[in-house]
Amino acid sequence: MATASAPTPSSSKPVDTRGLAGQTVGETSVCAVNQTQLIYRGYEIADLAANASFEEVAFLLLIGHKPSATELAAFKSEVAAMRPIPASVRDAVVRVCRESPKAHPMSILRTGVSLLSHLDPECEDNSPAAELRKAKRLLAQIPTVIGVCQRTLDGQAPVEPDASLSHAANLMWCMSGKRPDELAARIMDVSLILYAEHDFNASTFSCRVIASTETDMHSAVCGGIGALKGPLHGGANEQAMEMLKDIDRDCAGGAMSVEAWMKRAFAEKRKLMGFGHRVYKNGDHRAGILRREGLKLAEKLGPSAKKWFDLGDEVQAIMLRDKNIHPNVDFPCGMTYFIMGIPVPQYTPIFVASRITGWCAHIMEQHANNRIIRPLADYTGPTDLHWKG
What we know:
This protein is mainly alpha-helical.
């Protein structure tokens, strides 16, 4: 990406544009992000989290409008019927998990999506109707791949997806072989709504760059999975929970106070995951929504679950007081998924089970009005070298 520095109109001080910071690189009608709002096709995220289901949000993102009751019923039925994956893909995922048990589940999911592309009869068809059908299949099948992976890592046989369950509940069923209760399923549903879309973030922009070459949707999604795997993007929720586990271990039995642990982390310049955001400077409004939902479950489960939220609140208060840095959505996500019993390495694949809707919406938007994305760079190397002489 661009590394050039350019003067501002009012000052000669150079502006750091690494990572395209502050640069507008395109237009979208899918999502808007600003300091006070996150909007999916006109609807604000707090409104959606309180009043919509993930399936309604998926329809909104992929098709472009709020579904009627009839449209929603047809969409849910169609997508639920698409959940099974070919036996060859299932068996390949099982084999990889058994032979490489330390492979990151995101890498396995990336491989699973790539394998699905070979068996999708419309893989190479970029027409709008075909792309919408592919988007629905990916939405339906990704939880199944995640479930096959986790069940294999747990030494259990994969379970078949359950068409009677919601997207969120089916995802949890596929991973655990247990049907979640109503509260857990609703909290997962809210988390998926919050993660579904976020304009030109790293993984979505990766999808759009790849799609701009007029390649197929599955190839673009594989690129998005690769980008989301990184700890500075989707992997932050995993790292946030690992950090809390470190604090809990080091402070066990009063061996160290949380305050002392944080001061040590500051002195060591340790990067504390789950805090700060490239866009939101005054706090990520998704974080408060997910914390409130997760706390409901923690209070229901009792002290062993609630302690993680108490610890998180203490860490959050210290970060705000000493660094004036707010948590992002990944911070409460780590705690919430942990008390739900979800293995930490699956946090980011769950992110994919949600963000696939936003990715596919952007891929379709890119293909509908395409120009290959090809930025320029400022060269900083030598220009007067001679190979011979």
